[in-house]
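Morning run. Coffee first, then this:
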Amino acid sequence: MRDLHHLDLNLLMTLDALLDERNVTRAADRLALTQPAVSAMLTRLRESFNDPLFVRAQRGVIPTARALELAQPVKRILHDIQALLQPEDFDPRTSTLTVTLAATDYALRAIVEPFTRELRKRAPAMRLAVRQIDETNVRQLLEKGEIDLAIVTTQTAPQALHARRLYDEEYVCAMRDQHPAAGEQLSLERFCELDQALVSYFGDPFNGAADRALAEKGLTRRVSLSVDSFLFLVSLLKETDLLAVVPRRLLREEDKLLTFAPPLAIPGFTKAAAWHERTHHHPAHRWLREVLFEVCGEGE
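And here it is:
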């Protein structure tokens, strides 16, 4: 960099936006500026760092090696400056913080619903944006600030993030209370005979945790329906003669459904919250995580 006096905060914000968006038009929209204004700032950035920083591509721009080297330092500087502008005292009763949380539809019912109820009581002016999680891109979304908190399993939590166990989940069998097999003591053989449904987000749509447990015994079950939503599955169970093996917490507040232990051991899973270093020390985010841990039955 030639002269610190010619590098202002707006230039760093422009560089950060271009690194994230890889497109001048999208960067301009994010910064609420015109495309010519962003192009002019890019010219100043090139002069300051004595490097092209970005080269044109078919659908945007590509950062140079020097620009990639600057990505993390610039993001850290901007975060530190933003922290300087935040008040030291945090009062949840008056906070207007907006937090974005990513979760599966199972976690919406089991975690986000009770968490939202508690948050409304303690921080009525806070805003919570909930989006479907993309477990293949959690780290990048947290780094960019597109999400602040992710509900994941311990197996899918990226190692570079902060993460904390929320609880261990177990599977139960569920069917409607008027199901023809309601009241039966299901043997393993009878369990395999009944029409069943499962949730599959990826991979083989007709193979789940129960099927893997059965395969170890050389057995298979009759799965006639596969869906990609636990919430949809719960509705189907109430209206059909299907049986399903589902996470126990999913049905914690459901009526018209019978639940019982599966006739074989099915390994459960552990839910966790994951967040990035950029929010790790932020008072409001720390308070928010404490509420989440409390709702899930675990202390921080």
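The two ends are 43 Å apart (CA to CA). Good start to the day.
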